[in-house]
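Rather than argue in generalities, we reproduce a single protein record, letters for residues, whole numbers for local backbone shapes, just as it appears below:
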Amino acid sequence: MRKLSTSVLMVVYSVLLIVAGIWIGQSDIFVMLSGGISADTPTSLRREFAPFWEVWSFVHEEYFDQPLDNTDLVEGAIRGMLETLGDRNTIYLPPSEHQASEDRFNGQFQGIGTTIEMIDDRVVIVTPYEGSPAEMAGLRPGDVLVSADGTDLTGLDIAEVGALVRGPAGTVVVLEIDRDGEIFTVDVTRDIIDVPSVRTELLDDGIGYVRINQFGDRTDEELNEQLPALIAQEPVGLVIDLRNNPGGGLNTVVDIAEQFIPEGVILTERFGDGREVVFESDEGGLATAIPLAVLINEGSASASEVLAGALRDQGRGVLIGNTSFGKGTVQNNRTLSNGGGVRITIARWLTPDGEWVHETGLQPDFVVLFPEDDSAESDIQLQAAVDYLLGREVTGVERDSAE
């Protein structure tokens, strides 16, 4: 994992130290203004922090509604610092939301079961988890959350939205949804969301099916447990289903890619200073020669795009479905001393052929769309993948002919 820059660490560390001192009554604002942050703090940084502490002092001395909540002030300052970076994926998570995020990666949490992103100041559903209350209520990738229980979500950050939507199992949240200009409300009953990352089965005609819901802490272990039994049935091809997979851990997706790519680049991380780190596959995967078809859609994001892009560029499989979400950056998650966390973008990631998918997504080799009126009686994208692997005509539009 990469480390935060020294300057950012120093800023956060200094804020926490000083605020802690204020809380226990041992800190003097004016000492801070004179450069008492730390004996090792550079003079330039002390000068840059002076206006912050001046404002801190003014509001504590003059603001009419006292007493002030120092926790709220500190969290607001952290949010503001990160918002100035202009990156929707670099965010502060208060303790409750940070813990919820950790729980999601561990495979269980309470809520409605969606992943959301802030896009153009709107809260957009990236993925409703398979079998979740959100999916059962009919929510889709691309739906915009307008309000929750009557609270307008405009202007709120992701953490605040998550706190309003998430809640104990059995409780109901009323969501106002904007779907392509159509506004409607839907009642969603929260539940305990168990998110098994991997599901495998042998379909008809000898086609293996591997469904990956997310790239959590145990996803590679789950695949390692299930893949040998599937391969032992000697499938003639594998469908890897990454639809509505919101992503997850970088190391996890690299480990999984190694099961399907015999050798070669999986992805490249490119940092702001021009450095690059290349992740390559080691030998020993269980399914490095079997033909593959990869299913993607608008809910396939981040780590799922890493896997799909690597399999495509390395000639291991074709992409079938519709254009993926388009998240081409890597974040580091850091836990803070207050139990909260920061998620900070540290790099771009590129496919083996050097493509940056950010905000454009991966284009499928075969575009296969579900009817807009939901009239499809079967999974036509999965059927297209099976047809491809069996050498049949694919019911869809090849990318080259669609452009």
Summary: The two ends are 39 Å apart (CA to CA). The chain has three domains: 6-68, 108-193, 196-402. Residues 6-68 form one domain. Residues 1-36 have pLDDT under 50 and may be disordered.
